[in-house]
UniProtKB/TrEMBL annotation:
Domain Alanine racemase N-terminal: start-end pairs: 10-225
Alphabetically ordered keywords of this record: Isomerase, Pyridoxal phosphate
Record's keyword annotation contains Lipid metabolism: no
MF term (GO), any: alanine racemase activity
One of the record's GO cellular component terms: cytosol
The protein's name in its UniProt record: Amino-acid racemase
UniProt key word Amino-acid biosynthesis: no
Amino acid sequence: MAYVKLYRSELKHNFEFLDSLFKKNGVKWGITTKLLCGNRAFLEEVINLGIGEVHDSRISNLRRIKEINSNTMTIYIKPPPKDIIPDVVKYADVSLNTELSTLYELSEEAERQNKTHKVIIMIEMGDLREGVMREDLINFYEKVFKLPGISVIGLGTNLNCMHGVMPDGDKLIQLALYKQIIELRFKKDIPLVSGGTTVTIPLLMRDQLPDGINHFRIGEALFFGKDLFTDGVIEGMSDQVMELYTQVIEISEKPVVPSGELGVNPQGKKIEVSQDDFGKTSYRAIIDIGVLDIQPDYLIPVNENIRILDASSDMLILDVGTNPEGYKVGDEIRFKLKYMGALGLMSSDYIEKRVAD
């Protein structure tokens, strides 16, 4: 049976790298755990690192985090759907918001629960996902500051999450300036400018992060050591926190080119063959996952001699060449994972999750 393994030592290494980096630069940060899809064992590993702040986009996951450690500060990291507002106030200490009507309901619910709910207002800075338009910002904050049961603790933005717009000095300087403008206009203190995610880490490491950006929301860098500017690994970090282990269920030397009339397969593809491949053979290993679990493009074989050919719903086909490693049925083949692939695996009940030292 295929399983995802989380390596405790690699996770700790990446956490300590990031924690040291942020402390050295006077930046507060929290871990975004939406990748873990509420898996209790993996969440416990994250919370045991000593982080005091955890972010997630599913209220059920935040509820589980509070069950593990009620003192952990929880942040709901997308504009809340209105039908879960009671749970957002109950299980999220903070939420990210962009809609006045939602904030009105959060205010009413916070009063019902005799709580003060903290909010960070997200600003549209060009990536065209969530965010208040900049020309509406002053009017927006003016209304929010009047709401009972609501405490505005920051402003923030998301970049690179939708259209790939990268953070730069100009955009982040603008974000920090909005904080100053709002504070001066309304005589309010806004402690957080949440302008940092994994994509912003290289700017921080190159001393190019503008003053005033003092809060980061980090997921991908912690679990994959990812440098989103270079598509590589941040120097000093590990890309082996999580790996997929699969089992060989068939291995045989077969022709490289299929035989018979070729039509469209169940994924809507029509296979093209090269004339150069006729008459050639190679060893093909079938492993116990398929597109139901993960798209092949999100897998990186640890053995560089393995080539991913394609997948059906429940099986994935590998070309292992002349099979120099001597793979046989029952052997395990390991893969590194890309973020979106790991997300699919973590959400699947068919894939076991394990923790190892």
